[in-house]
Amino acid sequence: MSACKVCEEPLLLEVEDDENEGQTQQVPDDLQLGCGCHFHWSCLMDQASDLAMSLKCPACRAQVATNPAGGVQDNFDVLPSVTEEAYLAANPEARPARAFHVMCSEGDVGGIVELLQDLEGDGTSMSPGKLLRYQDPLAANKTGLHLAVEKGQEEVLWLLLWLASPLANELFPDAALAAAQSMGLQRSSTSSADDIRAFQDNQGRTAEAVASSLGGTLMKVVEAGVLHTGA
Fold first, then answer.
1. Radius of gyration of the chain (CA)
2. Could you tell me the fold of the domain covering 92-224?
3. Where is the RING-type domain (predicted)?
4. Which of 41-55, 59-73, 148-162 is the least confident region?
């Protein structure tokens, strides 16, 4: 078996054995670049900043810009992951924001609330308000609201409107109000400049524009006007 070009250890990863509690098993951890060099995933990501800048293999210095990676997963485009890791290494405060956007896409309301609670009083990370309005430069400057709309995550949509817009309470569905109250989520005053509904992605689209273009189940929300700034 080939060894990792960074640590020179076998291309295996030790993980917990789901069938035998307290025991571990070894699984393949092999990322092969188009040049033929093999790496552990974490070892290659440790080189992400240099790789993203040079677009050269850390071991043999061959160009990797157009070379698909292989190993355990053939034809895997490693460059987006490398670019993301390099960005997060330079901007560590963005890590919770990236996690927040994944939760918005997946509809993980509980995870979003827990993350926001963890950030309160944490001077080392961005504030909950900034997190709610974070625009991802690696994903066309979208907000969590854009992502919730794209993925049809209506519960997340109402949560973000509750926390990051001045939408009147009476315009929220009873279920959304009950959920917010059960989680102890208090609203704060939101100016028009901070209204998440006004934020635009790189194409100049608000979440309302995205919802209108997609149609589907969220059209009722668009037609109700709650995604429109000023509502």
1. 22
2. 1.25.40
3. 4-61
4. 59-73
Alpha-carbon distance 152 to 218, whole Å? 7
Give the number of other Cβ atoms within 10 Å of residue 63's Cβ: 13
Cα angle 146, 149, 150 (rounded to 5 degrees) comes to 85
Neighbours of 92 (CB within 10 A): 10
pTM: 0.72
DSSP at 103: H
Angle between helix 95-106 and helix 109-119 axes, rounded to 10 deg:
160
**Nearest of 80, 2, 18 to residue 48 by alpha carbon:** 80
Tokens 């006007």 locate to 225
Share of the chain above pLDDT 90, in %: 52
> Where along the chain do the CATH 1.25.40 domains lie?
92-224
Q: Read off the pLDDT band of 66 (50, 70, 90).
A: low
The torsion defined by the Cα of 145, 100, 159 and 168, in degrees rounded to 10, comes to: -60
pLDDT band of 106, cuts 50, 70, 90: very high
What average pLDDT does the segment 93-98 reach? Answer: 86
Structure tokens given for 124: 């080392």
